[in-house]
Amino acid sequence: MKPGIEFTWRRSFFEETLWPVLANRVKNFERAKVSSGWAGIYSHNTIDQNAIIGQHPNMSGYYLACGFSGHGMQQAPAVGKGLSELIMYEKYKTIDLHPLRIERFAEKDLVIEEAIV
To answer: Which of 5, 6, 43, 92 has the most neighbouring CB atoms within 10 Å?
Structure first.
């Protein structure tokens, strides 16, 4: 395999890998017609595929909100609210984002999401 990023969309990957998962979850996908595709960079946390949110353990005053994959726009309002509380009150008040802390990797306390394809 040559180094770099492959930007070629392969219908076979979609049909053999993604399509069965989608069709199993949403029956209407079985009838959908795919006319084309797109390939590009999908930036995400490769360990448990969830965001990394909270204060950096070794850098005082440095906060993280990254690794969202395609969920960033959906989760941005809640993450903004949670981080603002963490910064102002040194704790989460409205929504507990503690499970998404960076330390979870070293602690082997991953957040496994079964719905990610």
So the answer is: 92
Q: Which amino acid is at 83?
A: L
Rounded distance between C-alpha atoms, residue 77 and residue 56, angstroms: 20
> What's the number of domains the chain is made of?
2
Whether this prediction's pTM lies above 0.70 is answered by no
Question: Which residues, at least 6 apart from 75, have a Cβ–Cβ distance to it below 8 Å?
Answer: 51, 68
Whether 27 and 56 share a structural domain: no
